[in-house]
């Protein structure tokens, strides 16, 4: 049987936000740095050494590492750094699949004659990211995406690790189960409770046993990964199927007016991204999470595709109104909006503006002001004096 070589690179910047801060301020180098405030958005490896982790509360992080230096996030600097790193990726190979702003898969199998072995290409990529962007990046190299990602996780920080095709199970099986994609704290605890701590132990279980322990989807997924089954290829330029944004609300009760204001801000965000991607949507989805962590979605499909803020907002408001009895009864802890049924903007005839409604020129003007002066430059009156929530940089849609 033909076995292809280890030609997939998983390239992942180390402690991305914190590394950008250390790059731009020499006083932060070699010291524990926390980016964020109320919540840790990123921690340098010096801070991680003390147990500081992303998404931890700022208070807890400072108890673990009292001498940490806390800096506010500079999202525009991270966006710029991400763009520069993706330029290096695309100079390396045309086959780049972005996963997030600091992470991508690269297929380099066809480049052997002109650029060398995958290991040589990976080493050069790391040197180039450091030289051109000034940031440390770790690269895992393997035959599958899953193994390449596991390899970069193991090699962090500032490392390079190749998993040869004939050494895959030897690499995978001794690793802790937490290294498997999709194993979070809850799944790890379930496995630990049964004395299962390594991937090899997971591989020794029948699929039906895992399904019984973890449920159907999760059990099958882990069974496949532990046996090193991952047929996915690197996919270039894969278009998103939806564009979404959400906001956690905490546990305190929320009035309808407050929820409507948050909803409007979310709609502003997603429609702006929709227009920036030159796309239109037909379906508006409202996502809710309740106090008991149950989630529901409600959706509305428009008669015609649109990129108009007001039309999307009207649909979202209607969905919220219909969901209010449920919200009042169960308490809402997260609200989100997603736009789906996406199409290219020039692929469909857009609806003309309704009489008396502002045309797309208002949206265009607002987008332009925000692109130039930042998201906070313009806001809705209903949101004045409210915490806008954190808007993190994303890959282009
Ligand atoms: Mg990263």
From TrEMBL:
Protein name as annotated: DNA polymerase IV
Function recorded in the entry: Poorly processive, error-prone DNA polymerase involved in untargeted mutagenesis. Copies undamaged DNA at stalled replication forks, which arise in vivo from mismatched or misaligned primer ends. These misaligned primers can be extended by PolIV. Exhibits no 3'-5' exonuclease (proofreading) activity. May be involved in translesional synthesis, in conjunction with the beta clamp from PolIII.
Cofactors demanded by this protein: Mg(2+)
UmuC domain location: 8-184
PANTHER family from the UniProt entry: DNA POLYMERASE KAPPA, DNA REPAIR POLYMERASE UMUC / TRANSFERASE FAMILY MEMBER
Top-level enzyme category: transferase
InterPro entries according to UniProt: DNA/RNA_pol_sf, DNA_pol_Y-fam_lit_finger_sf, DNA_pol_Y-fam_little_finger, DNA_polymerase-Y, DNApol_IV, PolY_HhH_motif, Rev_trsase/Diguanyl_cyclase, UmuC
GO process annotations (BP): DNA repair; DNA-templated DNA replication; error-prone translesion synthesis; SOS response
Cell location: Cytoplasm
């Amino acid at each position: 049987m033909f076995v292809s070589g280890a030609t997939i690179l998983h390239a992942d910047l180390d402690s991305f936000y914190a590394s950008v801060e250390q790059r731009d301020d020499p006083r932060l180098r070699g010291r524990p740095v926390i980016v964020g405030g109320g919540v840790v958005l990123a921690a340098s490896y010096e801070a991680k050494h003390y147990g500081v982790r992303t998404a931890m509360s700022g208070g807890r992080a400072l108890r673990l590492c009292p001498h940490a230096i806390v800096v506010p996030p500079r999202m525009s600097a991270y966006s710029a750094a991400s763009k520069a790193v993706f330029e290096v990726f695309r100079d390396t190979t045309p086959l780049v699949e972005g996963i997030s702003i600091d992470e991508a898969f690269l297929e380099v199998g066809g480049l052997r004659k002109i650029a060398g072995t995958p290991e040589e290409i990976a080493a050069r990529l790391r040197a180039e990211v450091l030289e051109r962007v000034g940031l440390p990046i770790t690269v895992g190299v393997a035959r599958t995406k899953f193994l390449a990602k596991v390899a970069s996780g193991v090699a962090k920080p500032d490392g390079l690790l190749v998993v040869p095709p004939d050494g895959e199970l030897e690499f995978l099986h001794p690793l802790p189960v937490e290294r498997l994609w999709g194993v979070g704290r809850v799944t790890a605890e379930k496995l630990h409770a049964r004395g299962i701590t390594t991937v090899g132990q997971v591989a020794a279980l029948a699929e039906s046993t895992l399904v019984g322990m973890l449920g159907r989807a999760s059990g099958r997924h882990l069974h496949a990964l532990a046996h090193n089954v991952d047929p996915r290829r690197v996919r270039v330029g894969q278009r998103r199927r939806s564009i979404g944004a959400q906001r956690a609300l905490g546990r305190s009760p929320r009035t309808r007016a407050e929820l409507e204001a948050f909803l409007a801000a979310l709609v502003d965000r997603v429609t702006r991204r929709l227009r920036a991607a030159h796309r239109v949507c037909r379906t508006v989805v409202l996502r809710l999470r309740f106090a008991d962590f149950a989630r529901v979605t409600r959706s509305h499909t428009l008669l015609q595709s649109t990129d108009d803020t007001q039309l999307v907002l009207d649909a979202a408001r209607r969905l919220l109104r219909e969901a209010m009895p449920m919200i009042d009864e169960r308490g809402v802890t997260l609200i989100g909006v997603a736009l789906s049924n996406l199409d290219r903007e020039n692929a469909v005839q857009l609806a003309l503006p309704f009489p008396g409604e502002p045309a797309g020129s208002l949206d265009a003007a607002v987008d332009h002001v925000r692109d130039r002066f930042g998201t906070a430059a313009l806001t809705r009156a209903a949101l004045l004096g409210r915490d806008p929530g954190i808007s993190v940089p994303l890959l282009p849609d």
